[in-house]
């Protein structure tokens, strides 16, 4: 089955955003926090059954209202 995961893009606030969203939704959970050299690079979380990923892209790419959606096909079919 295909799944669609919204990706949210931040400068350095991905973990803080995830924590904030988790306080708003009753059914929320942290799936993972991925770090490199001590810095949070990405987080994965779930809100009301919908998974999200948030990325820290650094100051070169500014936060916008845009949302990227990743499609995962575990079967590998096209």
Order of helices and strands: EHEEEE
Average pLDDT taken over every residue: 85
Q: How much strand?
A: over 45%
Helix content: 10-25%
What gross morphology would you assign?
Answer: globular
By DSSP, the count of extended strands is 5
Report low-confidence residues grouped into runs of 5 or more. Answer: none
Number of helices: 1
Major β-sheet strand ordering = 2-3-4-1-5
Cα-atom radius of gyration: 13 Å
SS-based class: mainly beta
Main sheet summary: 5 strands, mixed
End-to-end Cα distance, whole Å, is: 12 Å
Overview of the structural elements:
The chain has 78 residues and is mainly beta. The chain is 14% helix and 49% strand. A five-stranded mixed sheet has the order 2-3-4-1-5, covered by helices on one side. A hairpin with a 2-residue loop joins strand 3 and strand 4. The longest helix has 11 residues. It starts with a strand and ends in a 6-residue tail after the last strand. The model has no long low-confidence stretch (mean pLDDT 85).
Give descriptors for this structure.
78 residues; mainly beta; five-stranded mixed β-sheet
Summarize the structure.
Helices cover 14% and strands 49% of the residues. By secondary structure, it is mainly beta. A hairpin with a 2-residue loop joins strand 3 (39-47) and strand 4.
């Amino acid at each position: 089955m295909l799944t669609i995961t919204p990706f949210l893009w931040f400068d350095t606030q991905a973990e803080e955003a995830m924590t904030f969203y988790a306080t708003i939704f009753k059914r929320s959970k942290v799936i993972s926090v991925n770090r490199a050299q001590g810095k949070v690079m990405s987080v994965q979380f779930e809100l009301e059954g919908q998974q999200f990923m948030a990325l820290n892209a650094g100051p070169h790419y500014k936060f916008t209202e845009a949302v990227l959606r990743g499609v995962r096909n575990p079967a590998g079919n096209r």
